[in-house]
Amino acid sequence: VLVAINPYEQLPIYEQDVIYAYSGQNMGDMDPHIFAVAEEAYKQMARDEKNQSIIVSGESGAGKTVSAKYAMRFFATVGGSASETNIEAKVLASSPIMEAIGNAKTTRNDNSSRFGKYIEIGFDKRYHIIGANMRTYLLEKSRVVFQAEEERNYHIFYQLCASSSLPEFKDLGLSKCWHIPSV
């Protein structure tokens, strides 16, 4: 289990040289880090030939999605896939519609994911990434009817309202969109 804590500033601890420093190390030989957890999962997958899971936990705005990106970048780099493809970007961009439906503005983050994610990464026999998929679950339904002050509903609501004058909007079967003050 990886606990995400957002320091709210950029730190130089996720660079390529740090990935290489943690690659091949045993858990506990170096400081606790996302890359240490990812390396341990990667080694156990290769050694035991069994699926591994990393659970990323943390409060809202802690950086769980960013932590998952860093773990995917680690796998892509140590698995020899980093030069061929930017795997974390492809996985996280694989569902832009779900991002619009499941992300909203919160007091801590203008584009906060309001649902859980299950990301499954496939590896070949040489332990190179060959594909991935992302499933979402536990959508925060209460946001549909209520938002705290200075927060917003899901992005899709505002996107639909902004596009209500487009000709293709009629095909959606939505007859009317109310004026929403911008936040």
UniProtKB/TrEMBL annotation:
<dbReference type="GO" id="GO:0016459">
    <property type="term" value="C:myosin complex"/>
</dbReference>
<keyword id="KW-0547">Nucleotide-binding</keyword>
<dbReference type="GO" id="GO:0000146">
    <property type="term" value="F:microfilament motor activity"/>
</dbReference>
<dbReference type="GO" id="GO:0016020">
    <property type="term" value="C:membrane"/>
</dbReference>
<dbReference type="GO" id="GO:0051015">
    <property type="term" value="F:actin filament binding"/>
</dbReference>
<dbReference type="InterPro" id="IPR001609">
    <property type="entry name" value="Myosin_head_motor_dom-like"/>
</dbReference>
<keyword id="KW-0009">Actin-binding</keyword>
<dbReference type="InterPro" id="IPR036961">
    <property type="entry name" value="Kinesin_motor_dom_sf"/>
</dbReference>
<dbReference type="InterPro" id="IPR027417">
    <property type="entry name" value="P-loop_NTPase"/>
</dbReference>
<protein>
    <submittedName>
        <fullName>MYO5B protein</fullName>
    </submittedName>
</protein>
<dbReference type="Pfam" id="PF00063">
    <property type="entry name" value="Myosin_head"/>
</dbReference>
<dbReference type="GO" id="GO:0005524">
    <property type="term" value="F:ATP binding"/>
</dbReference>
<feature type="domain" description="Myosin motor">
    <location>
        <begin position="1"/>
        <end position="183"/>
    </location>
</feature>
<dbReference type="GO" id="GO:0005737">
    <property type="term" value="C:cytoplasm"/>
</dbReference>
<comment type="similarity">
    <text>Belongs to the TRAFAC class myosin-kinesin ATPase superfamily. Myosin family.</text>
</comment>
<dbReference type="GO" id="GO:0007015">
    <property type="term" value="P:actin filament organization"/>
</dbReference>
<keyword id="KW-0067">ATP-binding</keyword>
<keyword id="KW-0505">Motor protein</keyword>
<feature type="binding site">
    <location>
        <begin position="58"/>
        <end position="65"/>
    </location>
    <ligand>
        <name>ATP</name>
    </ligand>
</feature>
<keyword id="KW-0518">Myosin</keyword>
